[in-house]
């Protein structure tokens, strides 16, 4: 980029900012529910200041140069923040594209020579397109981090250990049981066994859509870990289709207590603890 053009953009930095802000505020997709106009202006001003400063570089295609670090860092921070706030890829992409439109508009106003305008506009397009790619890549990484965190939170919520009776724990499993989730299930269950001193744990799999050899192995590992802690484990929720699948796959669950329902498992746990539940005819009235 020529020195004159670089000085031109620096000179008109405030004008570029205003055009860019107008472009953003007039966009039908503006998310005022996610970011205030003041915060939007603050982000825009910080980025445009760093960008115009680095447009003085002779090699505008090498965005890995040290001089571009401030721009990449600011843009990356904005992309990560927007990913966490819930912006869509399109909305984040428009943030950069509207800046490119503002830069090109100022060049068209200030450069009268057609050849120079074409050459300088081409350079701006290349720079901003590369920055758009960086923004998108960083945004995707941020969104993946959000998804992974939410997945972990959902896994924690969906594997609650319930103390159903003194000495008896129940853990209803809902959804697919994979390796990572099995680890969470075991950690939560073993920790609760230690804290409560329970000697019976019921794993209810009535909410598991299907049981294959891998899921069965995960269940066997959980049962083994529970027994090492001195507690007996009962698997409940064995539906007819699951029983057929287990037999068809040749999975050996003969050394594990299995029951068709959580109620049956709880009744069996009572017998192990030599507890008896009786129904009384009288009802206490408040």
Report on this structure:
The structure is a single chain. By secondary structure, the protein is an alpha/beta fold. The chain folds into two domains: 3-155, Globin-like, CATH 1.10.490.70; 162-272, STAS domain (Transcription Regulator spoIIAA, 2-Layer Sandwich), CATH 3.30.750.24. It is built from ten helices and five strands. The chain has helices spanning 3-11, 13-25, 37-54, 69-85, 89-110, 114-157, 179-196, 213-228, 240-249, 262-272; strands at residues 162-165, 168-174, 200-207, 232-236, 257-259. The protein has a five-stranded mixed sheet with strand order 1-2-3-4-5. Strand 1 (162-165) and strand 2 form a beta hairpin.
Placed side by side, the strands forming the largest sheet appear as 1-2-3-4-5
Strand content: 5-15%
Q: Quick one: biggest sheet?
A: 5 strands, mixed
| Unreliable residue runs | none
What structural class do helix, strand and pairing data support? alpha/beta
CATH superfamily label of the largest domain:
Histidine kinase N-terminal domain
In the CATH scheme, the class of the largest domain would be: Mainly Alpha
Helix content: 55-70%
Classify the fold: give the CATH topology of the largest domain.
Answer: Globin-like
- The count of β-strands is 5
Radius of gyration, whole Å = 31 Å
Shape: elongated
CATH architecture classification of the largest domain? Orthogonal Bundle
* Total number of helices: 10
Q: Residue-averaged pLDDT, rounded?
A: 85
Number of domains: 2
């Amino acid at each position: 980029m020529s020195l004159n053009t670089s000085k031109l953009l620096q000179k008109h930095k405030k004008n570029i900012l205003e055009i860019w802000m107008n472009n953003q505020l007039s966009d039908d997709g503006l998310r005022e529910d996610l970011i205030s106009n003041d915060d939007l202006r603050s982000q825009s001003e910080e980025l445009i200041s760093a960008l115009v400063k680095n447009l003085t570089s002779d090699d505008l295609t090498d965005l890995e140069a040290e001089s571009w670090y401030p721009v990449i860092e600011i843009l990356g921070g904005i992309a990560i923040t927007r990913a966490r706030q819930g912006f869509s890829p399109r909305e984040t992409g428009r943030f950069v594209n509207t800046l490119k439109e503002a830069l090109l508009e100022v060049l068209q106003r200030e450069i009268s020579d057609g050849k120079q305008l074409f050459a300088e506009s081409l350079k701006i397009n290349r720079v901003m397109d590369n920055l758009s790619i960086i923004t998108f890549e960083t945004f995707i990484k941020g969104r993946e981090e959000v998804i992974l965190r939410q997945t972990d939170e959902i896994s924690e919520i969906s594997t609650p250990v319930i103390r159903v009776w003194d000495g008896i724990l129940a853990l209803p499993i809902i959804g697919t049981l994979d390796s990572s989730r099995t680890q969470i299930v075991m950690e939560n269950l073993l920790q609760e066994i230690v804290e409560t001193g329970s000697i019976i744990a019921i794993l209810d799999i009535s909410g598991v859509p299907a049981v294959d050899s891998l899921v069965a192995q995960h269940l066997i590992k959980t049962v083994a870990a529970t027994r090492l802690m001195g507690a007996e484990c009962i698997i409940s929720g064995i539906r007819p289709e699951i029983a057929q699948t287990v037999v068809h796959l040749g999975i050996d669950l003969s050394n594990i207590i299995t029951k068709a329902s959580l109620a049956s498992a709880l009744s069996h746990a009572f017998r192990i603890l030599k507890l008896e539940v009786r129904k009384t005819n009288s009802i206490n009235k408040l």
